[in-house]
């Protein structure tokens, strides 16, 4: 029966699934093979190496392959050499550390899903060879640094979980991308020299980004605090943002846009390691803010009434559920309403 199947899905098990899949040796080339995890919170199921080395390379007519949820740490170097017709590949929630170079021969690939590959640190340098790739999801891959310019993927329509490491990529590269969805991280912002360069990222046009992380690295202080604030001004996102994280900002004062009540959907805000800042913005004006985390703000000596915003308007922090201050050694006074 299985030998006649063109499209197959199966529930992954705890025995490596070789016995379940070995009959595909005799198959007349299935087009679809999808692993289904019926235990969505359990991602510790191993896949037999015999499946990876002996079964999958024989399925040369596959158009769609999902190995979602398997505890795969390593894929064979030649995994995809014979799977050149593949259009959909899902490796989400696996334990892979490196995507093999052979993925770059998948010229027909349109969708590549790597979400929640938390051990993934490296993807091939020749990813631009995926000339038909339209959807790339690298969300929740905190160890991965983007080694490619997404702008080189000419057919890319959707990029989820993008990371921009400035120095390798530029703000201008970021500005050319209008297909970003979900989370966006911009790293090494100390490499941005002024507001003009920051504006090249066209952050206000990223309408589908709802989680944004802005990160400055290194321990150096800024030459000009006003320039640093102007750079942050230029990084103002579209008002659709839901979660915002700012780490290592080098200015002495935050931009006014952080407290703009037009950010109606902003529910979570984290400010950390902004050691030169001596004041907090008027965050009490944010109408939907529920979670506020303020950490390692060594320049803060007091929290003033400014923190609450305009007292003539609505009750400050009207939706706040969780407020955390941590590692603020110079903080001495809090002006409570």
TrEMBL record:
InterPro entries: LRR_dom_sf (IPR032675), LRR_R13L1-DRL21 (IPR056789). It holds the Pfam family LRR_R13L1-DRL21. Residues 171-297 form the R13L1/DRL21-like LRR repeat region domain. This is Putative ovule protein.
